[in-house]
Model the fold of this input.
Amino acid sequence: MVLSHNIAHNIPFLSIFLAIFGGIVTPLINDGQKSRRLHMFLTAVIGLLSLLLLFHVNFNQERFTFVMGHFPSPWGNELKAGPMEAVLSVTFSIVMLLAVGGGKDLIEKDILYEKQSLYYVMLNLLFGSMLALIYTNDIFTGYVFIEINTICSCGVIMCKESGKSMLATIRYIIMSILGSGLILFSIATLYIVTGHLLFTHLKMSIMRLINSGTYDFPLVITAGMFTLGIAVKSALFPFHTMLPGAYETTSVSSSGILSGLVIKSYIIFLIKVYYCVFTLEYLRDIKVTNLIFFMGACGMILGSVMALKERRVLRMLAYSSVAQIGYIYMGIGLGTNIGVTAAMLHIVTHAVTKPMLFICTGRMKDISLEKTANHRLKGIGYKDITAGVGFVVGALSIVGIPLFAGFASKLYLAIASFYSPFKMAVALIMLAISMVLNAMYFIPPVVDIWHTLSDSDANSKIVPKFIPSFNVAVILFIAINFFVGICYNSIFGIFELGIMLIR
Amino acid sequence: MTYNSSDNHESKWEKFFKWVNGEQALDSVWEKELKSKILGKRQKRHKSIEDVIDKINAQSKKIYIFFSIIITVTYIGILLYTAVLLPEHGNELNPTNNEVSQRYVENGVNDTGAVNAVSAMILEYRAFDTFGETVALFASIICVAILLKKDRSNLCPQEEREYIEDEKILNADGNGILKFTSRLIFPIVILYGVYVILNGHISPGGGFSGGAIIGAGLILYSAAYGDKNLKHIVNYNSFSKVVCGCLLVYFFSKGYSFFTGGNHIKSIIPKGTPGNILSGGLILPLNICVGAVVACTIYGFYSYFTKGDI
Done:
């Protein structure tokens, strides 16, 4: 028995299967703490494997196919991995690990003991499905894992079992089903006109159809509906209404994972479909890119405006996510390779920033003794320095201050806009306005957190319990933020290579 | 808050200056509200504001309904027009009649050893998708368990009372027709479900359909005789063991198949003689696993929705 393949080629398959394995065995464990340990162990192993894969594909500059079974395309299922997929999977593993590790005490508080193991089942399956969305080379496999993603997201949101979280889940599920319906319709139409489901053959068939001019209208509708479906799923403005309630009511680790990773996994799948099925040139021709550019630009501004009006910090962070999703779509909407690459970089920078903001906010809300909601975070930075500093670093990163992660992607988004002359002015103006708005909505909570406390303030009596895991997670998040903010050139380089190989 | 007393006398510029310095950012908005609460002015203002909001809401509701109708009608129109442009159903020149379906139909028996092409397709050619579907079922039953499993936070005295009353009614000698019929049908239903699962690779059927039949049988029995008789066979413990065990068998057998396939290693699993019960490679055990998962899931849904437990 000789492995004719490179061992590293098994990593995508192993990663997905390890995460799902965690999901399957966790109900048998039936103990919250052990389930968490298993989840974190598996995530760490997947992270290390993905790191190996990253070194391998980056060194060899390759993108390879892994046949899931004995039947290659167009008959069986396939996975495909290259530098882009590897970076994303490394990022997702690290963020998942830190978000769960940092918020574990809050998870224990928020979720009943007997249901904690079920919560970790959801997290494992969520992680597995996100990895499958990153690696898949089959549009229907993508749909199946989008469904698992949706079901698990809802499970994760309602784990807190409060009335509010139930309402948030209902809203989330309605919007998600709308998105799934659109995606499924477009996949069905695509199959009817091409007879294929795997990316490689789909692309060839579509090229033939475009050149011959047959099924022109159904193809346009398919591309548009697929884009809209993913836009609904990833909460692009104006389909963002499910986010604030969901992020406010669930445990902060879940909010971090949902906003940092889950909605990004849909966008990654969209980008893969754009490159591997429709091609960017075709989407530019049928003006789909203009549509998402417009929606993204609106989302950037209006998401920030809504965040500015919001007084509850968790909801503000949710609206901030709407704005950041707008940035990503604006990057894709530029319709150039560099625009998509910049959007990918923004996915990474936002993924490493938002979960940190969520777990810091959760921690600060948790230790606060102030009863009035408006002043809950007053002066709390002095009581838990790590949480306060973490929040400030996150805020600076979202605003886009140099040295922090957010700066890198915004810089590249601005640079990318130069390559699309017709959209340049709009993109630059929107970036500028949105950055100012970002700063405006982050100033009030930051000022509140670092407000000098007097003896009359309830928060001055806080004696916080030191939680090592939280501190380690936030410090690592801050370190990663600086790492991405300083070494952004190399990450951008890997994405460029990935996009070049995917074309 | 020293600046609150002079709040009303500040010029806009001063307010802006303080806001930029971060001194007044939060307080300016929130303190005002608190103050108005204390002074009781808020309620007065509230009423007039509420009237205005009601008016606006009524108007925006009309606009909302109008636009939703327009959007839905447009959407239906676009979908219908797209459907008209799609290839005619059953035409032999359709794009779907290509090398993919040709191989599924013509080489299915040789490739997989299964006579039923549908089973061959979902459990061999595109087994990863089916694995995903089974995991989706598993995820949904876990979700239902999170939502409905009785615990401290969702116990309701009224529901408890209703449940006890239901049990009493069931234990009374009523429901004769239901009990008699279900005693008659139950074994046949289960047997038929097992038949559909075991013959999934030879004749139409398979794990999903057979599992649904068995699940329905369990629901019928539980509805007629109450869950007490079923409790020592079907409880949370056995339920989770069966579901997770079957998924693990699926996981490892298909994992082996994917690993060997991906690395171009020949699989050692024999395909058997097509048409025999022991044929089709992994399809028969996989059908059994899928069947068990589906049966448990369907009964689990029923059980959680009626009693909040298995």
